[in-house]
Design brief:
Length: about 550
């Protein structure tokens, strides 16, 4: 991975420190930084070192003063029309810089920081009460960034630097002496927050988003200990400290709606805790919002392991949130792969502590993200139904499964890329691809990108299988074959492979080669090609000669 930084200030003061901070998070990237005041030159010159570097990601952090110049101090010397003209010039310059960069780096994503002023306006209260003042100018330029985001799509990621400054305090964030001496505008203490801010935006490109928040109950979702205080004496409601717990639950509900599982892990009597969850009038997170409940007296590390097994996710996909430092330390020691958040201080601060967890952030959501928890609930119904059957064959028949297969569907680019980046267990090669790379595959006659959406009588599972196939005149090669862990074992993988083999045979090729590259996590798919009559050629390649008899399954295939 290659990461470039384009800043309008002198980044020499922070680049080594930021890279040390980044590497300290066990992440790896090559970095490129522009020299001071060369940001425009690097973008407009196609022979610049920026383009030679060929970054995967570019972070753009420009200051609005760089573009406005003396406009900031001389605004009253200009007429309203002159002010408006100047603002339009600035907007056009910013748009030109961003569009030129994306044009010259067609496979790169950019993270663009929005704008704020270093100091309050020279005009004080007057500024907000005159046409085309500085505050209005700032609003217009930041609105432009939102318009560019809507126009340019998923390659443009907008990051809220202005809110970071506001939360830290403008007077504390900027150091005018530092800027005068070295053209670096920020206070050294604020620089640490800036590092965290950049890291949070970059992390999704290096590690997939966490899948589950495991949360304590007493003094975390409500104030007090239900076993001692009783349901009527808990702090939870619209007044006093209880309001902070309500707001914290609302934040967790938003994570739930964005596709993250919620699980409760609490040392409590089950009946006492469930009574609060189900009956307390101010409880936001009712039982249906929890994908797993571990309310018992077992140690929390064991419970977290059990939750991961139930949800079919790795323990490294879990964030554990608790107010008790002893419980947090236990989980840290026994499960170092789990990200542990020890809530400290007043409950008023809980929201900000959880929002600062970079691994829970995402710049985009797919339809599957929005419906993930609904699909999980449907999975629970499937598990209950399975118990009534004595053999799997009859159970699969009862599901009335339908597989909707698409080939090179551009509307599915984001979901396909997301699955390549996140899927580990049933992923035969674990090759990670970006949206742009998937688009390139789909537009090339040398590739086919297959997707399978699985529907049964309990609901729509969404797009759960992807295959990327290299098309040759004599032989096809399956570069990528992956499946969401939610549908492992339901024969959908057989349905898709059979469809690919049938298409290959119709095209006139002699054989299909499938690849398997072992990782620490994809053991569940190790025997897939063997089980489908492929012959092993070497350490990675398996081959089947056409025509061949396909494996039976109970999935009705529908080509879209």
């Amino acid at each position: 991975m290659k990461t470039a930084f384009l800043t309008s200030y002198n980044s020499d003061f922070i680049k080594k420190e930021f890279q040390a901070y980044f590497f300290g998070k066990q992440l790896s990237s090559e970095f490129w930084w522009n020299s001071y005041s060369t940001h425009e030159q690097n973008i407009f010159d196609v022979n610049s070192s920026l383009y030679s570097f060929q970054p995967n990601i570019v972070v753009i952090h420009f200051e609005i003063e760089t573009f406005l110049g003396d406009f900031v101090s001389d605004i009253l010397s200009l007429s309203i029309s002159q002010r408006n003209d100047r603002v339009e010039e600035v907007k056009q310059k910013i748009a030109s810089l961003i569009k030129t960069l994306l044009k010259n780096l067609p496979n790169t994503k950019i993270i663009v920081e929005n704008f704020t002023f270093r100091s309050t306006s020279y005009l004080g209260i007057l500024d907000s009460n005159i046409p085309a003042g500085l505050n209005e100018t700032l609003l217009k330029v930041n609105l432009l960034l939102h318009e560019l985001k809507n126009e340019l799509g998923e390659r443009f990621i907008l990051n809220d630097f202005a809110s970071l400054v506001a939360s830290f305090g403008k007077a504390n964030a900027y150091d005018f002496r530092m800027y005068r001496l070295g053209k670096y505008p920020f206070d050294r203490t604020f620089s640490v927050k800036l590092f965290e801010h950049f890291y949070s935006a970059l992390l999704p490109f290096f590690n997939p988003r966490k899948k589950c928040i495991v949360v304590d109950l007493d003094n975390t979702l409500w104030g007090g200990i239900v076993g001692q205080d009783g349901i009527d004496n808990l702090q939870l409601g619209s007044s006093g400290i209880g309001e902070s717990f309500v707001q914290f639950q609302k934040l967790l509900l938003n994570f739930y709606r964005s596709g993250i599982f919620l699980a409760a892990c609490s040392k409590n009597n089950y009946d006492d805790a469930i009574e609060v969850i189900e009956k307390h009038p101010d409880m936001i997170l009712r039982k249906e919002f929890f994908s797993s409940l571990r309310i018992n007296w077992f140690d929390k590390a064991a419970n977290i392991t059990s939750i991961a097994t139930e949800l079919n996710i790795g323990t490294d996909s879990i964030v554990f949130v608790d107010d008790n430092p002893a419980e947090c330390e236990l989980v840290k020691q026994q499960m170092p792969e789990v990200e542990v958040i020890n809530l400290v201080g007043e409950p008023d601060n809980y929201i900000q502590q959880l929002l600062s967890v970079a691994s829970l952030q995402t710049a985009s959501l797919t339809e599957e993200d929005f419906s993930r928890n609904i699909m999980h609930n449907a999975d629970e119904k499937r598990k209950e139904a399975e118990l009534s059957f004595s053999n799997l064959d009859d159970y699969y028949k009862s599901l009335e499964m339908k597989a909707y297969i698409s080939v090179n569907n551009p509307a599915q680019v984001s979901r396909v890329a997301q699955l390549t980046q996140k899927t580990n267990q049933f992923n035969l090669t674990t090759r990670r691809y970006s949206n742009e790379e998937i688009k390139s595959f789909m537009s090339s006659s040398e590739n086919k990108v297959y997707t399978l959406r699985l529907v049964d009588k309990f609901g729509d599972n969404g797009i759960v299988l992807v295959a990327i196939v290299k098309i040759g005149d004599i032989e096809w090669v399956i570069d990528t074959l992956l499946m969401s862990c939610r549908v492992i074992g339901r024969q959908a993988e057989t349905a898709l492979l059979n469809f690919i083999l049938t298409q290959a045979e119709k095209s006139g090729v002699n054989s299909v080669v499938g690849q398997f590259i072992a990782t620490k996590k994809n053991a569940p798919s190790a025997n897939f090609y063997k089980e489908h009559s492929f012959t092993r050629l070497n350490e990675t390649d398996w081959k089947i000669t056409l025509p061949t008899k396909v494996k039976n399954h109970h999935v009705n295939v529908i080509v879209e």
